[in-house]
Amino acid sequence: MNPTQLITRRRMLLGGLASLGGLLAAGCSKQSPPTYGNLLRMGDNFTYAAHRALLSGRGIAKEYSRSQISSFPATGCVNPATVELDPVSGKKPSELYARLQARAFADWKLSVEGLVARPATFSLADLKQLSSRTHITKMMCEEGWSGIAEWTGVPLRLVLEATGILPQARWVNFKTFDDFPENLDMLDALHPQTLLTYGMNGRDLAIPHGAPVRLRVTTQLGYKSVKYLQRIIVTEDFDDGGKNGDIQTGWSWYAGI
Amino acid sequence: MGKSDSSSGDSRHSVWVRITHWMGAASFIILAISGALILMAHPRLYWGESGNDLTPAWLELPISKNHRHGGWSSNGPFFEGRNSPVSASRTFQIFNENGWSRSLHFLAAWLLVAPGIFYVLAGLCIGHFRRNFLLGTDELKGSGFWEDVRNHVRFRIRPATGGPQYGLLQKCAYLGVVFVGCPLTVMSGLAMSPMITSDYPFLSDMFGGMQSARSIHFLAFVLLLLFSVVHVIMVIKSGFRRQMTAMTIGN
């Protein structure tokens, strides 16, 4: 091997490593969720940064025809009122949810608070009065299975715009009756297919699938589409959701892959 | 032995080949282990766009307790009529280590893809593939191919040369891994990403749907695993110490 060749090859290697380092640095900036020094969470953030850098984030997930609707398992919590929720996390059944369920969710209210100009609460009837969107899309579970269903709801974007998102808002956080805290960045929160879903396959959303209202995010895996919504809080700082949040339970916050 | 610019091939493994080889090998081992763990969470494979415990699978692997479990409480059909899709609630805890194994899988995938892109570009620019991988016209003439097959079947393996002086079948195997096996696993992997397929739906469509892509991801892995097993046997058979020296310190 002659010396000039060696230099070009080394330069190529260095060039490649430098550009990789640039992406890694972007992945570890304060734009991203905390890693708490965990190498896997750094990798998650790196993938998140790469997706945000290389993809538009505005692509529309494939929509299907009614004949392609498939059977659909309900997993995770299937009723916050009665289920012995996950024994590992020690979650307790929700008495409030039991009371709401007894009155067919007539008293259910979704509060939208935080960095919004006009914090508000929405009843199920309020949400149904806003213009709705229906899409037949596939939900992919991190476990490996997938199901196709018709989802009907109000785009989260409409609700956030109705309450007036403040300019410094960065994250949209969700609190649920099954204590499964989640959050989205603004790009996913404002995505046109992101719905506050109250209908599934032409009927009211059933309890095992998240009644009365669940989130539906088409650009990420199923666990981001949290069920049993209770509160929406818009923030500037990232909220990891505490001990039941993705990061502290050892899961990737970003689930676009 | 020829010089690196001669058409007969390089005399020994270049430093960038050695580095990318071991990065690829490390990532393959991590991907295989984490991938197996991910599959254990749902050891059922399907064709088409969707598939789950309530729909038929083409392959059920008995690799975890999640295989062929019962424990579903029916929520009934979604529509009127006999063939309506149904809903059911899971009533038991499954085996699921996907929290860390998925994150590890994607971290290792970067370790495969980043050096992999560099390797392919470098191999094309420097002429590594043309000199060392491409089958010569003289090699393809006559009975060379069948003789190489016969030698492999009879386990008569040439001793190591310490460089990329590859045999006919060996070249075919490396071309298959670099230009078919690895790209297929990467593409079928990307085809399972909801974010990537929202921007590039053709990725999923060209496999016939997300669950087909998942099945092909698994089958392509099985082929790469077979290659790895044969590769290691050949390394041992042709002189383990000589081969390892050639692929590490380069002599």
Largest sheet of chain B: 2 strands, antiparallel
Radius of gyration of chain B: 22 Å
Count of extended strands of chain A: 11
Mean pLDDT of chain A: 90
Strand order of the largest sheet of chain B: 1-2
Estimated helix fraction of chain A: 25-40%
- Structural class designation of chain B: mainly alpha
The quaternary structure here is: heterodimer
Strand line-up across the major sheet of chain A: 3-2-11-6-7
Distance between the termini of chain B: 13 Å
**Helix content range of chain B:** 55-70%
Principal-axes shape call of chain A: globular
Largest interface: A-B, 63 and 58 residues
Percent of residues in β-strands of chain B: 5-15%
From the spread of the alpha carbons, the general shape of chain B counts as: elongated
Number of strands of chain B: 4
Index terms:
heterodimer; A: 257 residues; alpha+beta; five-stranded antiparallel beta sheet; B: 251 residues; mainly alpha; two-stranded antiparallel ribbon; 10 helices; 6% strand
Fold and architecture overview:
The complex is a heterodimer of chains A (257) and B (251). Chain A has 257 residues and is an alpha+beta fold. In chain A, 26% of the residues lie in helices and 23% in strands. In chain A, the strands form two sheets. In chain A, strands 3-2-11-6-7 form a five-stranded mixed sheet. In chain A, helix 1 (3-27) packs across helix 2 (39-54). The mean pLDDT of chain A is 90. By secondary structure, chain B is mainly alpha-helical. In chain B, strand 3 (72-77) and strand 4 (86-90) form a beta hairpin. The longest helix of chain B has 29 residues, at 98-126. In chain B, the strands form two sheets. Chain B has a two-stranded antiparallel ribbon. A two-stranded antiparallel ribbon of chain B has the order 3-4. Chain B has helices spanning 15-41, 98-126, 128-133, 137-140, 144-153, 168-190, 194-199, 202-205, 210-237, 240-248, and strands spanning 44-45, 59-60, 72-77, 86-90. Chain B starts with 14 loop residues before the first helix and ends with a helix. Chains A and B meet through helix 1, helix 2, strand 1 and strand 5 of A and helix 1, strand 4, helix 2, helix 7 and helix 9 of B.
